[in-house]
Amino acid sequence: MVFSKYSIQMKKIFLLGVLLFTVTTFWSQRNQIIAYIDMEYILENVPEYLQAQNTLDAKIAKWRKKLDDQARHIEVLKSDLSNEKAILTKDLIEEKEEEITIKQEELRRLESLYFGPNGDMFLVRKQLVKPIQDQVYNAIQSIAKRKKYDFVFDKSSDLVMLYSNKKYDISELVLSNIDRTRLSNQKKEERKKKKEKKSSNKELSEREKNILAEKNEALNKKNEEQQAKLEEARAKQKAQADKKAADKEAKKKAIADKRKALQQQRDEKRKLLKEKKEAARKKKEQEKKEKEEDNN
Length: 296
Known about the structure:
- By secondary structure, this protein is mostly helical.
- The chain has a domain at 33-173.
- 84% of the residues lie in helices and 3% in strands.
- Helix 3 (47-84) packs antiparallel against helix 4 (90-115), helix 3 runs antiparallel to helix 5 (120-147) and helix 5 crosses helix 6 (171-202).
- 6% of the residues are buried.
């Protein structure tokens, strides 16, 4: 580790020495125009880069979760084998150990597949980030040619910059150039789409127009059928409601008529009973009168 850090430091010193030697050599011939950028700052302010980084981070999190789940499963298998070893036969122990070995090899294979030198992470990062890096490099080249810079250094790289004057920082110029390019590309794309749409509309053949008309007619017919079905359903629903109301009214009338008939029957019975009582009373009085006359 110490040797590695020492090697990196020596590499930085060597690069700085080469840079100073090159600049000094060219400076002796003519005045050089130098600028620098902060690549980390630029990328952090490019929306496409942040979106690409978020996409990559989501994929990495998904891959790591899969690896962690498999690693935990292997640990569970190891723990189970350790706890059950005393009661297992030799063949079963060897079978379980072989299963653990296979899963460990599969885990190492997945780690290499996801995070190896040519793994998915490297390929996805290249696929997502390279177009954005190309935008940045194209912007830097455009600005360097326009302003005739001889050198443009990256402040965030391994190159050691002992001092940097802010007025030579063209990071904001690069971002502005990228924004202008993005807007220009968007407008070009919009114009292209409008042109294609216009051209497509003009090139509509008679057959396509007929097909479109048939589709519209079929759609209108379908809508009419649906409307008719809806109206039929509403009419049916209304008829059922009316029938229900009529049945209810008829039932109420039948109950009222029945009550009225029962009341009439009761009144007739009362009247008949009253007449019978009156006839019995008169008969009794008549018999009494006749009896009194006989006694006299």
